Amino acid sequence: MARFRPILGIILAAIATFIVSCGGAAPKQPLTYTPEILQRVQIYAPAVNDLRDRFPELQNFIQEKDWVDVSSFIHGPLGEMRFQMNRLASTLLPKDADQAKQLAKEVYVHLERLDQAASEGNQVIVGQEYRNALDDFDAFLNLIPSNG
Question: Residue 79 belongs to what domain range?
């Protein structure tokens, strides 16, 4: 009997591991936006929409070739844009969240390139990166569900 005790312990451990691994299924993710999810989305959406409304200010600085204010605006009012966008993206359904996080990253990259081009006084690149950032930002906003 003493010889079977270690083998019995291994068998019981294997059975316990099997039972625990089969025990609980992961909670099912909703396929549509529930009122609870929409409520969470609406907590963060206004701040991101406000950032979008500030883009014309940046465009004015670009048109005036005011590179110092372009850089100040990117690092000032738009400085927390990526954080705000990622926070909003994390409230979305998984099918939308991954794309939203990628778009947030792309907007940030465009703004970095815009800032670099502004420091070099390259208006052509600044204009291109502004347009790219705006397009990606609008694509991000199109992923955000409305309450209606």
Answer: 35-142
User: How long is the chain?
Assistant: 148
Question: Residue 47 belongs to a domain with what CATH number?
Answer: 1.20.120.290
What is the distance of C-alpha 14 from the center of its chain? 41
Task: Tell me whether residue 76 is in a domain.
Answer: yes
The pLDDT tens digits of the residues spanning 44-94 come to 999 999 999 999 999 999 999 999 999 999 999 898 888 999 999 999 999
Phi, psi angles (nearest 5°) of residue 33: -75, 120
- pTM of the predicted model, to two decimals? 0.76
